[in-house]
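Quick note —
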Amino acid sequence: MTSQREVGYNGMWAKPEADPRSDVSPVGELATIREYLSNYRLTLGMKCEDLSPEQLAVRSVPPSTMSLLGLIRHMAAVEHNWFYRTLQGNLNAPRLYWSTEERDLDFDGAVADPNVINDAFTTWREQILTADRWLDSATDLGTMVSMANGEQASVRDILIHMVEEYARHCGHADLLRECIDGRTGQ
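Predicted structure written out below.
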């Protein structure tokens, strides 16, 4: 007897007409970066849909503390660090889901509690809105900004890093979701 894996809709995660992600070819560097960033954000959210609190908090393989919920908390912290703290010059603002005593708090604190889940998704969405408002005013990707370590980076480098961060973690989310319920797809 072979088991059937749920593969979505003809190998796709969502029905094409219901997929919120865009497949247009944007014009210009900033528009292209924003399109990729937006699509990866949507993909991460989609990988978390229709799961119970326990499923969202399922850890990958020991000793890793990675979970889908942990990825949401982690990406909220990443959005906050790069868009609010770094690009908006608020380097003294406290970091989200992080402490010097427990640097893995974003993942370690990802437990199957509805309040923790609500906080994670609310915070992540708020950080995305903050980032998108900042991106609405971005004009020069070559502008250099100060980072927390005292070094300088271009806006372009930070934005490409954000795309890379989401791409890597969407790969993790693919594997986590497949282990939870067998669901695969784009």
